[in-house]
Structure formats: C-alpha cells, structure tokens
Amino acid sequence: MKDKKDYFELLAGYFSGNIAPEDQKRVEEWIDLSEENKRDAQKIYDLQYTLDTLVLMNEIDANTVLRKMKRRISSKDRINKVKMWTQRIAVVLFIPLLVNAVLDFFPKDETFGYMEARSSFGLVSFLELPDGSKVWLNSGSYIKYPAKFKQDKREIYITGEAYLSIAKDENKKFIVNTLDNLSIEVSGTEFNLDAYESNDRVTTTLVEGAICLYYEDGSNALKKYAMTPGQQTVYSRETGKLSRKSTYVQKDIAWKKGSVIFRNTSFNEALWILSKRFNVDFVVKKESLRDYSFTGSFTDQNLIRILEHFRISSGINYSQQQIVDDNGEILKTEIDLY
Question: Which residues, including other chains, have CB under 8 Å from residue 155's CB and lie 6 or more apart?
C-alpha cells in the first residue's frame, strides 16, 4: 500500500467483509507493522460503522441499529486481528465521528465541533482523546469532548463514571466538567470520577498526580480544594458541601478491570457499586440491613455470586424480577433484599 488512498479502500473492504482472502492477509500484516497503522485502521473502522449506522437509521428503528452495531463490533475475528479495541468496546459513536474520521484523511484548517460517546449498560468502554489522554467509561456513562482541543486549554464533559489518565501538557490545562456546579482542573495525573445523574453525590478519587476541585457551596460561593493521592472527596449536589477521606483506591477503580472489590464497604455503598455495574435497581425491604458492611473480591462479574455471598455471610435473602417494555425487551432487573 503506497498511499492513504490505497489502504483507505482496502481497509474499508476489510471491515465491511468485502475483500479477497489474499488482500485480507495483506491488510492484517500491514496493521501489525506499526502503531501508526493501527491508529489509521481504527479511523477507518469507526468511519465504516458510522456510515453503516446512517444507512440503517433510514431503514429501521434506533434500538435495532444499536443491536446490530453491538453484534458487528463484537466480531472476534476483526477485533483480535487489529489488537487495539478493548475487550468490551461498547461506545456508541455519533455523527461527529464521521466528520472527524474524514478530516483525518482530508485535513482542512477549519475548527470543528464536539464528539460524544456513551458506554452501554453493563459494559466498560475505552477511548483515547485527541491529546492522547485515556478514558475508561463505566456502565451507562457519557463523555463529550472537542474533536480538536483549543490552543489554551483542554476541556471535556462527563456524566456517569470515568477513570482518566491525562496526558501531561504544561501549556494546556485540562478541565473536566460534570452536570452540576463542580469542575476539576488536572495536571498530568490519574483519577476516578463518579458523577451519575441518578446519584446526589459526585465522588472523586485521586490515584496519582494532583487535581483541584472547583465547586459552589451552599451559599453559591466558589470554593477550591486541592486533592492528594489516595484521597477521596464527596460533593453533595443537595447541600453544596464537600467531604474528604482516605480511601482504598483499588476498591474504587476495580470496575475498570471488570471486578468488584469490597473492603469493609457499607451496605449502601455496596449496593451503589453493584447497581451501576450491573444496571439493576435494589429495593431494601428491611432497613436494619443497612447496618451491614462487606469485604470480598469478585472478578467474574457475576451478580448472583455476589448476592449469594451476601446471603451466606449475612443471611440477606434476595429475589429478582425483570422490568420489560411493551415488546418484551428487558429494560432493567429489580432486586428485592430482605
């Protein structure tokens, strides 16, 4: 492949399944040659599926589109060959992705808009920002970021839970905004942000480096707090108060690797961890259960196994029922605890 036009056409055929066997082998060997080739292949991959989505949206309903995208994205043959997709790619890429992918091959000088991505419920997703920063999105989380960062700063928006590894750039501060009166100014660092809309708290855990929180207190005065590694802060949306404590970091970021870790974890916190990880609602039938705490590690993502741990260790019983829509599609699972 001599130029971009050559591999643009071959990669498009490769990811759509319309390619001769000899060309397929040729593409796979080329992809493995360098990191740059892998990045270019990913751009074509994203472009291919965005184009497919645009076509499908004119033919079938949105839910059917998403199901088809999930089936295609999970194709082991293509994903394993390219080696750059995460094990659980579940990001829904919107129309701006099409613009960004095309511009990478036909660059212009104009400034372009935002990219958006959302992680499907029950899955963990990974993406890389334009500056090389890495982001993992927990179940049901959303991120919005510019296709190209401004010259003076890098600014993104997150709802849900995300683990961020920020590329260091002393000339461009990095700012993370949530959907409330809280923002985080970051230097090169790693941290976890839990900011689901369904929760009245925003929890930030600093793994390494340094970050500053900017928030409005109960009187709408702007406050600043500098965090240190190993520290966790909890901001209350209702009261505007910020609390801080030392934390066992591995517990707070276990979801990134698909695990659940409890370490003397309170009952309420344990339910919150499980609800966002498995997209379930818990109904506590016996208030005295809230006095319990738990310790244990679970790496197979099996909710029933964890509930059985609750039952055996603490005598907590459970029953479950599925909430379905008019078409019989499962929307969510409800767990009663008693």
Answer: 145, 146, 149, 174, 175, 176, 177
Instruction: Report the C-alpha gap between 55 and 222 in whole angstroms.
Output: 47
Structure tokens at 204: 């930030």
DSSP per position, 164-196:
EEPPP-TTSEEEEE-SSSEEEEE-S-EEEEEE-
* Orientation angle between helical segments 35-57 and 4-16, nearest 10 degrees: 60
282 membership: H or E segment, kind and range: strand 280-284
How far is residue 156 from each of residues 98, 134, 159, 162, 296, measured CA to CA in Å? 19, 12, 10, 12, 34
Per-residue pLDDT tens digits of the chain, which is 338 residues long: 445 556 666 777 777 666 777 787 888 888 878 777 777 777 776 666 555 544 444 444 444 445 545 454 444 444 444 433 433 333 444 434 444 444 444 444 444 588 889 888 878 899 999 999 999 999 889 999 998 898 889 999 999 999 999 999 988 999 999 977 799 999 889 999 999 998 999 999 999 999 999 998 888 889 999 999 999 999 998 899 999 999 999 999 999 988 999 999 999 999 999 998 888 999 999 999 999 999 989 986 678 889 998 999 899 999 998 888 787 777 778 999 99
Listed residue (299, 231, 293) closest to 263, CA to CA: 293
CB burial of residue 263 (10 Å; 0-12, 13-18, 19+): middle
- Cα separation, 301 vs 233, whole angstroms: 27
Which residues are CB-neighbours of 42 under 8 A, at least 6 positions away?
82, 84, 85
Closest listed residue to residue 234, CA positions, set 272, 263, 261, 260: 272
Token digits for 14? 């490769």
Q: Residue 27: which residues within 8 A CB-CB, separation 6 or more?
A: 7, 10, 11, 14, 19
287 CB contacts (<8 Å, ≥6 apart)?
Answer: none
Question: Nearest 5 degrees, angle CA 155-CA 128-CA 110?
Answer: 60
